[in-house]
Amino acid sequence: MNNDNSDQSLVSKYRPLAVAAGIGSILGSGIIVGLSATITVWQTGLGLTNGQVGIISGALTFAIALGSLLAGQITKSFGLVRSFNWLNLIYAIGALACVFSNSYVMLLIGVVVTGFASGADLPISLTVVSHDSPDEKTSASLVSSTQIFWQIGVFMSYVCAFIVSKMAGATGARVVFTILAIFALITWLWRTFSTKFKVFHEEGNHRWAEREKEANVTEKVSIKTVFTGSNKRKFMGFFFSILIFYVCWNLLANTFGQFQTFTLVQAHASQSFATGAGIVLNFISLLATMAFASVAGGKYRNKFFLVGITVQFLAMLGLAISSHALWPIVIAIGAYNIGNNIAGEAMYKVWTQEAFPVEVRASVQGFINGFSRVCCGLFALITPALVVPSAIRNSMFGFAGIVFISFIAGAIMMHLEKKHGVNDF
Predict the structure, then answer these.
(1) Membrane-spanning regions, if any (predicted)?
(2) Contact (CB, 8 A) for 245 and 410
(3) What is the count of structural domains for the chain?
C-alpha cells in the first residue's frame, strides 16, 4: 500500500510536466482537426481552388511527418530541453501566419511551419517526460496520460469549429487558429520559464549521468551504437515490433476517422445524428484513454492491451457482417472507439519510451511517427475507393486483418519486454 501511495505521489509531483507536454498533444491534434474542420471556410474566405485545398491538406500531413523524422536531429543540434521549450513558439508563429493570411501562399506557409513544429514536438516532449521521470513506472503513467490531451484537442477543435461556423468569410477559421496560437504561446512561456521544470531537468540530467556511471558506459549512445552494437538484435526486435504495430493501428485509425460519419449516414442516420454520435464517441475515446493511463505503469497493462485489441477485431468483424441497420453499426463503432484507445497510441508511446535509451528516444519515435504519417498519406489516396457502399464490407474484413497483424506485433513486443527485463509484469 505504501508503495502504491509513493508511486502516486511521484506521479502527482511530475504531473505538471506531463500536462505541459500534453498541451503539445492538444496543439498536435488541434492543427490536424482544426484545419480539416475549417478548410472549406478558408476556401470560401480566400477563394481557394479545390487543387489548392488539396495541396494545403497534404502539405500539413507531410510537414508533420518531416518534423517527426527530424526530431532527433533537432535535439542533437539544439539540445533536448531547449527544443522542448522553444518549438511551441515556432508553432505559434506558424498559426499566426495563418490567422493573418490573405492569400493561398501565406496560408500554405503558415500551415507548413505549424505542422513541422507540431510533428517535432510530440516525440521530443515525450522524451523529456521520460528523461525527467524518476523511474520507469512513473514515466509509463505520465507518458500514457499525454494521450488524453490528444483526445481533448480533437474535441476542442470540433467544438470551436462548430461555434464559429456561422461567421462570415474566413473569420471563423482565423478565430480557431488564434486559439491555437494562444495555447502555443502560453505553453512556450510555461515550459521556458517554469522554475519547477528547470529543477526536473537538472535532476533528470543528474540521474542519467549517475546511471551511466554505474553501468560503466564509456561509449556515447547514438542511433548507430544502438542498432549496430552488441544489443542490436534486441533493439531491432523492439523497433520493428513497435513500427508494425503503430503503422497498422494508424492506418486503421486515420481511415476510420475519415468515414465514421459516412458509415452512419449510409445507415440512414441524419447528419445531425451522425455529428452528435461523433461527439459522444469522442467522449468514449477519452474515457477509454483515461482508463488505460491509470494502468499503464502496472501489471494490468498487458491485459488491457489484449482486451482492447480483441474488441477492435470484433468491432471490425461486426461492421463487416452487419446489415445496414443503424444501431448495430453505432454499437460496433462505439466498441471500436473503446478498443482503439485501450490498445493504441498510448501503448505505442509507452513502449517506445521504455524500450530505447533516452538518448535516442526522440529519434526513434520521431522516425516511427514520420514513417507512419507518410504511410497514412499514401493510403489516403485509395481511401475513397474503400468507403463506397459496394466495398465497405470487404474493407472491414481487410481492416480486421490489419488489426490481427497489429496484435501479432504487439504480442511479440510484450514477449520481448519480458525476455529482456524491460518491466516486471
Answers:
(1) 17-42, 54-72, 84-102, 148-165, 171-190, 235-253, 273-292, 304-327, 370-389, 396-416
(2) yes
(3) 2
